Amino acid sequence: MLENVFWACGFVLVCILLYRFGLPALKRFDAQNVARIKQQEMDKADPNAHIRHALSAAEEQVESVTEVTVGGSVQYLFETQIFPTRDEAEEARANRIGAIARRFYAELPQALAGRETREPLSARERASQRWRRRN
Questions:
Q1: Which residues contact 47 (CB under 8 A, 6 or more apart)?
Q2: I need a labelling partner for 76 at 20 to 30 A (CA). Which of 3, 37, 89, 104 fits?
């Protein structure tokens, strides 16, 4: 009899924890998905969206500026270089991000040219084409 009470209390406790911690996490996840979908729809009409995406991808590849305290002074570290002010370090970081994005656009024609000189179709692609012709 007492065992059933413990199981019921455990079930109620799990429900409370899910309501308290699980539901807000799911709401945040849903809000992020809604924002991402909305941004994708806006990007379809924006002719400069590809530049923004290239810069955001480049920004993910570059480390952030680190604040280092030496003695009583504060210095900023970016890619093994020490800068006296955060503005100088952030400028160096922005230059690095721009260089990566420019390199992406410089390599893009070669990547697109490689698509045209593609090997013969794979067995799966040939079977897919035969299936489409039949239907």
A1: none
A2: 104
